[in-house]
Amino acid sequence: MKKLINKPENVVKEELEGIALAHPDLVKVHISPHYIVRADAPVKGKVALVSGGGSGHEPLHGGYVGVGMLDAACPGEVFTSPTPDQIYEATKAVSGGAGVLHIVKNYSGDVMNFEMAAEMAQGEGIEVATVITNDDVAVEDSLYTQGRRGVGVTVFVEKIAGAAAEAGLPLAKVAEIAKRVNENGRSMGMALTSCTVPVAGKPTFDIGDDEMEIGIGIHGEPGRTRMKIKPADEIVDMMAEAILGDLPFKSGDRVIAMVNGMGGTPLIELYIVYRRLAQICEAKGIKIERNLIGNYITSLEMAGASITLMRADDELLKFWDAPVKTPALRWGM
Amino acid sequence: MKKLINKPENVVKEELEGIALAHPDLVKVHISPHYIVRADAPVKGKVALVSGGGSGHEPLHGGYVGVGMLDAACPGEVFTSPTPDQIYEATKAVSGGAGVLHIVKNYSGDVMNFEMAAEMAQGEGIEVATVITNDDVAVEDSLYTQGRRGVGVTVFVEKIAGAAAEAGLPLAKVAEIAKRVNENGRSMGMALTSCTVPVAGKPTFDIGDDEMEIGIGIHGEPGRTRMKIKPADEIVDMMAEAILGDLPFKSGDRVIAMVNGMGGTPLIELYIVYRRLAQICEAKGIKIERNLIGNYITSLEMAGASITLMRADDELLKFWDAPVKTPALRWGM
Amino acid sequence: MVTKADVLNWLKHYAQVVDEQKEYLTQLDAAIGDADHGINMQRGFGAVMSQLPAVEDKDIGTILKKVGMVLVSTVGGAGGPLYGTLFMRMGMAVGNKDALSPEDVVKMFTAALEGVKQRGKAEPGDKTMVDALTPAVEALRQAVEAGEDLHTALEKATAAAEAGMKATIPLVARKGRASYLGERSAGHQDPGATSSYLLFKSATDVWNHADA
Amino acid sequence: MVTKADVLNWLKHYAQVVDEQKEYLTQLDAAIGDADHGINMQRGFGAVMSQLPAVEDKDIGTILKKVGMVLVSTVGGAGGPLYGTLFMRMGMAVGNKDALSPEDVVKMFTAALEGVKQRGKAEPGDKTMVDALTPAVEALRQAVEAGEDLHTALEKATAAAEAGMKATIPLVARKGRASYLGERSAGHQDPGATSSYLLFKSATDVWNHADA
Ligand SMILES: Nc1ncnc2c1ncn2[C@@H]1O[C@H](COP(=O)(O)OP(=O)(O)O)[C@@H](O)[C@H]1O
Ligand SMILES: Nc1ncnc2c1ncn2[C@@H]1O[C@H](COP(=O)(O)OP(=O)(O)O)[C@@H](O)[C@H]1O
Ligand SMILES: [Mg+2]
Ligand SMILES: [Mg+2]
Ligand SMILES: [Mg+2]
Ligand SMILES: [Mg+2]
For chain B: N or C, fewer Cβ within 10 A? Predict the structure, then answer.
């Protein structure tokens, strides 16, 4: 294992100390238990957004705390959901009296821990609504199963619902918008290499020098299929087909597109992926209104990429364009 | 070689097509020869900034084209300087009548190609000034040699001189500010793994599973020493000592700090590096006024990091804080 | 009777087993999950061990609830709420006792299983810890009702847990991370079912004195 | 006399040699540079080959200047301006001739070396292509002045280039990327000196007819 770390057990704590030292103007970091809140929290009268999940997906979620996005992020250990006490304390710390929205990726651990925290916060009279993201088309969906994983669309939910909350909308409306973003978003990822969880010390999975994993999860979970590596255009074709066919997206749709790096893939490759994605959308009459290209929801140092498309309407685009000022996403201010 | 690419020969061209599709609001891409200019180029009466160098360092330089930063970027093949005709054409395309500043990293190839292009542009009556960045303390400096490599400080020069040009300062003054930034900046990098040039198809260098290279260049050039990997804090101590002792930085200095990822290192590790760097600066009485933490000048998918410190004064900080709107750096607008 | 000392020994023994089996549990999780189950459980029971002294003089119920709370706040993932709920429900089921009859032990494990099912919404056959716990609790109950001594009953429960754990191998997961794999989850043993089997095995190994 | 056909054959042969030695030149560059010298030279001479037909009916000077311009705009890196300048200066030195005397050839290579030194500001001993070119041009000049036939003179120049190239091995680089390595650049042969040696070797191999 080759990493720029000290003791594997201290990775998350030291990362948080780094964030605290780097961005005192944007966020406040609480160490015991771990959570990050925006510098001016709690904002009186504003719906507060709390998200969280395992660490190792940076900049998700801590990098999205700030004006126009999250009020708090709760980082768990690497790839491990945060605990109810973290989420409960963060919820209390940002509650401004207008209710709190929990944004939860659909993993059994995340869902259960947020559920326990919501019960605890509600017990103290804080109104909590929850939106669960589940946009990963690589996973079969069915009534009898856990359902799909929450991946890239989570970034969109945090941005758009964050803007809605900043605009003063009430909890029910912010939650409705968050759900709308999730329902209109679909993602798929792929990996060329594995990642290594620091405390595990060795790669999560083995993969041949000429192989790739299609439909990978953001924790290095196996995906849909393992196959020989192909040219980027063919890989994007496969991913786009799975994504577009799922909602399905139709000619005339307007979308926000994200080409996301898994952590170890350079930007030069992400633009090659975006090129093909834009060509495909163009050919199908789908208009990409906005885009993000870079590392937004990662899997440690894994090489690979994911694509997220979200069908947008005027309201969602307006909230997308609204100013945001966080360590990892910033525009308009 | 595992990469999200099509044909290795087409990497740069397809990346540029991706950039053109992604950011039509910010930049215009010219394919033959390759260069990127800001969407509203040429800006009449404004000093124009042109930079460039080998590709593979994304977002440098193309990601920094836009309002408040570069007017044009000339990407060469991967790790290969651009050619004089590219630079000459880009210089003509952005020249707004107030002169053009060439920002050149100190590599013999870059210097010679920019020199030939400047001669050609001057032959057409365009006033060209050149600033050469050479901030890499890993390299011995001497009158008889090529001197030091230009690395991280180039990002600072592009941002700060870009703001100075946007503010309407004349060429001589913009060039003076650019040189001041370079003179006050020092950097050093390290790598845990090699990178692979697409057309080469195999890693540039071999490195043991327990080794790291200190003082690495941004093209995978060997650095100062190869040694057994150490905890992050010790690595940062070594790098900071080399950087701080070189200018030297002194107690009371105000600096802008960058912790830069080489392309394959996740953000979580960069914050652990920043944590130590901030502790060291604090202990030495050096005040970090601003910081950048992320992938800003990379070396394809290499795992590793570099640190840049630049001594800032009020004027440089003012230009740092000025609005910027480019694909990779954006604030204030 | 299971004394408070027995309960404390069980917890200590299980913490040690988790520590020894950390790699193994993590390996199982690597195949169909995210390679952290052993790490999570070890972190949790390490915390339990360091916080146990503070409540050792309290009653069994208080001790077990404390264990649950420590697990909830240190394990994270799915394991945290599930094992946390399991121990909290055990504590609530036995109340402020200092020794447990075989019937108390049945009540305790029954409540534990109910809590896990409520929290995780998993049913037997979903390829989770429920698949080890359900037959174990059932075997324990039947044996105690049939008048067998507790140690024998626990041996049967452990055997049933082991069989349930092994029976997860061919299953396609419907809950938890492994479910994302669909058909590809078949052929691997569930890590949570494994740690649950070890929980029964630890009780059997520790509560082996004549009058248990 | 070196005819225009000889010059074109030389260029074609060198393009082929560069293609064959691409890996080798890149390997040398990997050790002390950025692993692209062979790739760069091959890209450049590939472009030269495809653009040569357009000027084949022109004089030698025009052809060589065109080669230089194509290299400048396709090679990039240090090699582009250096080899570009080398060929442009050759073209300027020979002017609009259709055949070259041995003295013309000396003039041509002397101008090439001057151009490279001016562009790169390197001196002999800096561990660059100048270390192969300098002794080669000197040997060529001496042999021609001594009245030897051109082929023999070129053989001596090539031997001198090879010696110069090998002599770069122990040197510590003072120019180019390799200079960033300091002492660590010693022990490796300079890639640019190697491609320059091959340039002389190609001329020797091709200009081997009796009256050359
Ligand atoms: N909904 C659920 N109900 C019951 N058990 C579950 C559920 N989800 C997961 N589990 C159990 O949790 C185990 C995984 O725990 P762990 O690896 O600690 O958490 P995570 O999956 O969050 O990394 C699985 O092997 C399974 O037995
Ligand atoms: N200033 C210089 N003067 C003469 N030759 C130089 C100079 N700088 C570099 N070279 C030559 O260029 C060669 C490297 O060329 P190449 O690899 O194509 O360019 P780059 O170093 O830009 O990647 C070196 O081996 C050396 O012989
Ligand atoms: Mg986990
Ligand atoms: Mg090069
Ligand atoms: Mg797990
Ligand atoms: Mg080179």
Answer: C
